[in-house]
Every structure is written in C-alpha cells, then in structure tokens.
Amino acid sequence: MVVRIDVTAPGDPHGQQIVAAAPLIGVRGLEHVRVTRVHHVDGPLDQHDIERLCREVLADPVVDEYTIGEVGPAQGRAVEVALLPGATDADARELERAIEQLGMPPARVATARRYDLTGDLSDADVELLTRRLLANATIEIAVEGELPPEFAGAAEAHVQVDTVPLEGLSGEQLVQISRDRVLSLDETEMAAIQTHFVSEGRAPSDAELETLAQTWSEHCVHKTFRASIELTHTASDGTVTVTEHDGLLPGLREVTEELSPWWLRSAFVDDAGIVAFTETHDLAFKVETHNHPSALEPFGGANTGVGGVVRDVIGVSARPIACTDVLCFGPADLSDDELPEGVLHPRRIRDGVVAGVGDYGNKLGLPTVNGAVLYDKGYVANPLVYCGALGILPHGSHPTVPEVGNRVVSLGGRVGRDGIHGATFSSAGMDASTVETVGSAVQIGDPITEKGLIEVIERARDAKLYTAITDCGAGGLSSSVGEMGEDLGVDIDLSVVPLKYPGLQPWEIWLSEAQERIVVAVPPRCLPELQSLCDAWDVELTDLGEFSGSQRLKVRYGDTSVVDLPMSFLHDGLPRRRMVAAWTDPAPGSVPVPTPDASLLLDLLSHPMVASKEDVVRRYDHEVRGGTVVRPYVGPEADGPADAAVLKPLGVAGTAAVVLSNGICPAVGRHDPYVMALNAMDEAVRNLVAVGGNPDRVAVLDNFCWGDPTKPDRLGSLVRAVQGCTDGARRYAMPFISGKDSLFNEFNGEAIPGTLLISALGMMDDLATAINAAGMHNGDDLWLVGAHQSALGGSLVSDWLNLGATTVPEPVADPLPRYRAVHTAITNGWVSAAHDCSEGGLAVTVSEMAIGARLGVTVEMSDDDGDPFLALFNEAPGRLVLAAAPDHRNDLGALLGDQGRIIGQVVGRERITFRFDQSTTSGDVSISLPDAVDAHRGGRR
Amino acid sequence: MNQPTILIPHASGTNRDHEAAQAIELAGGIPVVAHINELRSGSVRFGDHAAVLLPGGFSYGDALGAGGRLALELRTWFADELSEIASTGRPVLGICNGFQVLVKAGLLPGPLSEPRRVTLTENERGRFECRWVTLQVDPGCRSGWLSRVKGTVIRCPIAHGEGRIAVADAATLAALEDGLVAFRYLSDGARPYRGAAEAAAGQYPMNPNGSVNDIAGLCNEQGSIVGLMPHPEDHVLAWQRPSGPEGQSGLALFEAFVEASR
Q1: Which A positions 46-105 lie with beta carbon below 8 A of chain B?
Q2: A171-197+205-216+399-429+440-576 belongs to which CATH class?
Q3: Does the predicted interface ipTM exceed a cut of 0.90?
Q4: pLDDT beyond 80 at A156
C-alpha cells in the first residue's frame, strides 16, 4: 500500500525566496508560495506506524504541519516536482533507513516537492515559474497537479552485450557511429579501432567501443595537449612565423623538470600534484573544472565538481583539508531576450552553483577558503566552475605500484545510470538539444558517502592496506581500472558491482560515473582488515577481481565476456593528432581617456567584478577544521576582501602555514593570451606574497578553459597561453605540478573567452607573520610597490567606460627580487597591511584597504604617476600597496630601493582621497568612507 | 592530575570532531572519538566516560532535517544510556549539529516529552551562513557547570543553515527564560569588560539566524545538558581569532566542561 505524507512549514523561507525571485524572471503576480515536502511510503505499515513516522521523523512539532493519505487543499495553482528515477534521493534513502530503525516493516520511499502558488498567475506564468525556478528538467520531472510516485528499482534486470560490426564501414559511417553513441571520436580514431578489431577478426562489443572512447577522450587523455601543432603567429607588425609544437603538455612538464626544486615531490603523474610542507608532511593540490554539467544542472554539476576534485586528492592518499572555487558566470542582470534558447539564466546558474559548492564542501567538513567570482557575457551559455582541493599526507605514505595478484577493490557509492558519457560529453560543444541527449551525464552528489571514504582511506593508508589507489571519476571503472591496470592487466567481474537499482547493462555499469567511489589495489592478505575498517565506517567494499599480469583488460559479467582488450592498444593505440593553430597579435595603440572623478570610483567599487562577494562566500564554511588564519574577508567588520587564504593544518606540529591564492585575467587574454598567462601567474604570486607567503616556495596549477581547439584561432590562443605559462614558470621559478584542460566550451559555435586559471600553493614559515589587506593603523605610510603602465587593454575601467583599449600591460620582466623584498619586509614585521593591485587599479586597491580597515586614506599623486586617470585605474601587473608605520620608513625604503615609494598616509576615518599635483588639470578624487562601504556592498547597482 | 575522558560520538557526516577533541585536550581532558557503530556494538560505551560531547557536522547529510536522523538513533538505540546520563547529571555538551541532535531528541530543553515545544529550524534568511559572532554565557542560566563561566563573552564562528531557535508559544519561551537560556548572541558594540554586554536584539548579522530572544544555546532543567549553535571549539588558540578584541576565546567553556567532568 502506498501512503502519501505531506509536510509543510508555514514559515518556510524557501517560499519567500521564490516570491522574491519571481519578478526577476518576469512573473509579477506571484504573491505567496507554500512549499510542501511530499513522501510516498510503499510498504505494510499500519496507521500507527505512519503517525509515528510523521511525529518522530518527518514533521517538526514546532514548525511543521502534516497530512496523511490526502493531498492538502490546493492553494491557487499546485506544481509537483520529483527527481527523475535514478537520481540520488537522499531523503528517500534516509527515510527507508529510519523506518527500519524504528522496527517497522521495510518500505520503499519516493519523495517530491509541491508548490502551491497563489496570486494573479497566467498559465504562461506557471509554466515559466516551473521551468525557471521550481524544477530543472535535466534531473527532475514537474507537473501541474499531482505527480504519481516513481519508486527506484522498478526496472527489470537484463544482461546483454551487443556487438558493433565495423568491418567494411566507410569513414563517414564510422563517424556516424561515433556521433550516435556520443563517443566523440573522429574518423582517424574510429579507423584505428576498426583496424584493430579487423585484425582480431571480430566486432567490438558495445562496452569495448565505449571503453576506448572514454580512455581516448579529450577529458581523459588530453588529445589536444598531446597533439603536434603547427602555429602560424602573425605579430602586430605583420611578421609571420610558423613554428612546430611537439605537444603542449610535454612543454609544461619540461619546465617543471628543469626547475625541480627540492620541495617538489610529484608533478603531473598522479591525480594531484604533491609538494613538501614540513619535514614530516606533504601537501597535495588539484583544481578541476566541471563546466558542462554545471551549465545544465548548476547545483548537481558544482556539487559533483567539488566531490570529484576532493577525490583527486584522496586519490594520492591525502586527507583533504580545504577547498577553493573560482566561478565565471554571465552577467546576473542579463535581459531575457539576450538569453539563448536552451540556456539557464546566469543568475540561476550562479545560485545553483554556489549552493552546490557550499553543500558539498560544508558537508565534507572542508573549509572553502579561496576563490573568485567573475562575470562576463562570454560565459552566459558556458559558465566555468573551477573546484580545487588541498590535502595533507605524511611524507612518503602514498603507494603507487600495484602487484600481480592484488585485488581490484572498489570503495564507496553504488552504481546507477548516473553520469554516463560524462567524459565524452565534456569533449564536445553544446547546443539547445544537449539537455535531451546527455541528461544522464549530470548527477547529484552524496557528500556523506565521500566523507566515509576520507576516513577509511586515511586509516587504510596508515595501516598500509593498499599498494595503489585512484579516484573513480570520468569514465567510471573503465578509466580508473583501465589506468591502474595499465602495466599488469586486470580481470574483473561486473556482476558483483552493487547497483542502486537493477536494470543496468554491463556497459553501463562499466561506464557509469556514479560518484563517491575510489579504487584501490589490495594484497589479498590485507583484504579482511580493510573490510572491517569499511564496516566500522559504513563504507561499502566490493572485490571486483584481480591484477592479472596478462597485460589485458578483461571484463566479464559472470561468465559473459564484456571487454577483452590488450592494454597496449587501449593506452597506446590512439593516433596522435596533428593540429593547426593561428594567432595574430593585436595592433598596438592608445585610447583617449577622460578625467577621473569620484563617481567613477564608486561605480567601479560597485561593479560586480569588484563588489563584495560576501553573499557567495558566507554560504561556504571557511572555519571548519579550525585552521583558518587569513579568511576570505578581513578587517573589523570582516568585509574587506583578502588576497589569499592562510591555513594552519590541524594536527601538524610547528608554526608553518599554507597559503592558497589564484590569478585569473581573461579580459587580458581576449587581446593577448600570452600576456594573460604571465599576468595571471603574477597575480597569483603577488596575492600570495601580500599575506606573507614566500615567493620562493610557490607551486602552481594550470587550468585552461577554451573553445573548440579544432578551430585554428582557438587553438592559436591556447598555444600562446601555454607559451606564457612555460615562460612564466621560468621567470618566477615556479613549477607547475598539475593541471587540467576543459576544451569545447562553445555554444552554437560561440566560444568562451579563453580562460586560464593559475592556482598557487605557497608556504610561510611562521603563521604569526601573516598579514591581511585591512590590518593597517592610523598614521601608517602607504607604499606603492611596482610601476604604473599606460596600457588599459583588458582593464575593468576600459570595459566599464567602453574605451576600447586593446593594448595590454606588459608582464613584469624580473619579478622575483621585488617580491622577495616585500616578503622580507613582511616577515620582519614592518608591514601592517598589503593588498594586490588588480581589477580597478590603484584606486580600487587603496579603497578596498580603507573599507576593510574602516580607516581613511590620502594618496598624494605626483608627476611620477603620469596621467591621473591612467595612474588611478591602470592594471599593470607587479604592483602591491603596503601600509607600514613611519618607524619603518627608512628600513623599508632601503629594502625596496627603486621598487617602492611612499604614496600617501592612513588618515582618520572619514574619506578616501587621491590628491593630484598642481601641474595636472585634474581635481581631487575623493569619496566618503560610508559611500565607499555602501558601493562595495553593491549599493550603486 | 585526574584527566577525565570525554566521549565524542561520530556519526556518518560528523565533521567537527577533530576540533572538539583538540579543545578538550587543551582544556585538560582526554577526548575519545568513537563511531556510532562502535557504540552500538558495545566496544565503546557511554557509561565508561565522564562526559559526552556531541560535535558539529552534518550527521546523515541533514536528510529529513538537521540532526533528526541521529536523534532518532540515539532514542532508539541508546535510550537507556541517555536516561542514565541525564539522571546522574553527567555533563553533556552539544555543538551545532550536536545541539540540533539534542533538541530533536527531546533532551534539550527537556524533559523528554511529546510533542516537543522547542526546535531548531531554517535560518531566517533561508540559507547556510558562516561568520563570526559574539555570544555570552547567559548570566541567568541555571546550569551548574556553566556557573564557572557565567557572563563570559566568547567570540567564535557560526556555520549553519538550521540554527534558528523557535518555540511553540509564549509559555514555552517564558519557561526557557526561567534559567534554561545558556547562551545569547550579543550586539556588535558590546563592551563586556565594562559590564555593558548588550543583546543583539534580533538584529542581523549579530543574531545571525533570527533565533527568538537572541538565544544561541540552551540547557536542560538540571543544567547538566548544554547545547549551542556557534563553534567555541574553533576559537581555542589565539591565532584562530580574526581582527577584534583580544581574548574572548572559547577555551574557558571547555575548561568548565572538563572541570565538571572530573
């Protein structure tokens, strides 16, 4: 018998949130929303049981009301929303467990949400509200009226392995197969597969074809980054040079090998890069992207993005200790007629992504401490979601070599039809039909299961229970098992894989990207101990098979062969791509600029790129683990933006602290991707130096998000950015330790601005020397380190005033001496506050410091500063503003030499003033501190 | 010196157990983190420990309401142990999710009765929020073990989505105000050292979640069981404090807790 239980909280703030959001999507008549949690319970429970469930589990006696067996009277229009079958329904699962725990007979549960919408609403309004605010068709079904329950597990089990004959097919037919099956393989690659199976005298199974497609996907094997590329580079003076590039990835690795600092432990070979932290501990760092899924289902996409990168860190035997996130969205105020069909509104994407990031990190108990939020029209259809994770591990504790006879063991979540084709889907562009074809590539995470994995792996590592480990991510078991068994070969049985519901075909089990799984290689003698560890922590363990020594990937479902491929073909059979790239440098030029005024400064402080992101950041727990030294927002009111995060990992002795920062400047890349790379690296370093990090202990990660690399202009800009990275790594003596590329970020043929994120991991010897951007005192001197430049290309002010500047500021030629000097000054205790100069230039930098400290400042601009407008708003790299007591004036002057000069003072609590020399025509630019605070909170938008 | 052992139960999704253990250690106690499965199997027992600290986190992912699932487990699996703890007056401290569990289990403000008249529900702004707050151990609180720190002001972070204290009616609120309010959010401008601590008066963000009467934590009638939403365990070392007044650490609270456990 199925009983329906409705629970509603009359004061539920979610209803009010929907009412508040409705006018933003053009629905003006919505007055009230009642949100009801609907539970369908299917089992032999009696009336008493149901009543008890309501009282003790489902309904809070103080704030909730409930009805049993009947749908409450509709208020206005009622819309019901439920997860599609197969999506993780944590509430249903927990209710099933609770029923069991209460000693009631087992029951199946399905849940839904009901929205009673009251007000003056047309059919079109209800449709719009449903589509835009109440439900997401990618993972949910919504109807007006009552929705019949769908219980998981209704499907029939069946085992079927199909073959796909390739022999004799033309290139065109091969490409058609690739397209129909979402394999994302090109004609050459399909032909290589055809040749292999013709030589074996048989047709591939569906699972073999899928395995090859996954393993050979852009996502897994980085075809573009390994391709040989011919670049035609046209300089601004018209000079054309053609160069051959023997792979982009090897170039990045080469410079890391060349630098090889003593503290580098592992780069590019594993799920995450590893560097030394203290004598006893190492740090692992990784940043991933989850762009395509987040475009379709923002909450689930971002949620599983965090889950995935955290598993990367678990996958190098580290305990995750912090998260980062950098997000790029379309403008939040985009008008509806600018929104392409099939695309979610940027505001909805932002809200979903932020909630998804917060949900996962918070529930794992990881502080999300560093990040950025960027807005640009280029990201409307392709938002970027960069998720990072930092982990810690005892030095030398990460085993990487499986042995013949080791068991192939999967730990964690169960397998459903989730996320099938994620790796191949992210290796293609999107259009309006993407939702229909790859809806299953998106899923919702289960952080509590992943939390169990963290606990188990840390203990299993310390007890030396495994010989190798890897995350089960894109491509599911096909990728993780295929990779781990590359040298030895594996033999596994899919019939033992625990499923969320029956009905999956073997290839689906093999390919499923169901989250929260880790694969370990376990010596048979260690299996019992690992099993009891898993039992203690409620983690499911499955022994899939063994590392065979046959050098073949053998996958069975019971006795039925599913995959039987030589590892050599799987890993080395992919034909190398030859690609063509072209890049033309922009013509140099300057633009006329206006006279600066107070209103412009307030506009920039209020600009979405600059204004406070507290509404985002405070939804993340940045305190959990009790190790946060410098937080995302600083100062007496905790609303001044910090440059970087400083963390003292719990349980590690000593005073050493970790610094996390990032650099990202896609607006510069529009004009010159080479300079973007260098300037992003500079931004990451100066952010890190600004809080007290040591510029000689910095490791970086690259994350390239680009358009379709088969188009020469996209690839040309990518090659130039990579060249910037390799040159930058040498210039800053800063090795890349890991990276990631997400290509094909295009919608209807429009690419995103090529976007490089540099994530930096740094160290400081003593956390007591950490400073922040708001630590200054009345009477302090303000120092400017570094020099202005007149080029405004890629600057915020050029964009805001439509100045059309295309020439970008020059990278810093010799940055390290300057940053070393600043670092020395900070460790000597001479600097009370430091802030990096980036978006909005010096004017915004100084204002942010004043806002954070709630102190006034007066900056005296001189002839040295040149044109007042350019001096205030240029975004030349290499600049920092420091505050220091006048006592340190001589010391600091001697230390900085010609790299720094005093530009003003911290004065009172009233105004932020930039005063100009008599010889210029400009008047003072001066704003009151309260106005600045208000603007920074977004008050002028 | 007699070092009491403090049991810190860990359920799936618990995550502030490490910091809680650190705070107990710094306060002179011996923390024992034990998984619910170990408590169920009897390999670790409630009765063997001087006190219980229910830590923060997201037990069972907050499914079906924060703390509700773990509260149900405590009531179905450990009913005898809990009534024994309550009757002997051994100290219990619940922080954040641990507080939610104690309230949902009917132990705070107690006594176990149906239906509950007090709850913790969604923040007024309908979202998770993390920020530092100032709170005070309420001078009128009847808890014996809190008397050592009565009136003490603590600065520490909150990090929760369901931390708003709500009551069924005015009579319930009056009952709470009769010595069961253990902690209250203070206004930003509070000057506790001058004896002029001011309540947050419902104002956001000083009262970050809209709790009635700025209540941040409660105790039971005997005063042995105490719970609060903010995280004093995240401010037990000087460097953990962001800018602001010196001191006001949460360590004193844990010292009082450990002292009462001796």
Answers
A1: 55-58, 60-63, 90-91, 93-95, 97-98, 101-103
A2: alpha beta
A3: yes
A4: no
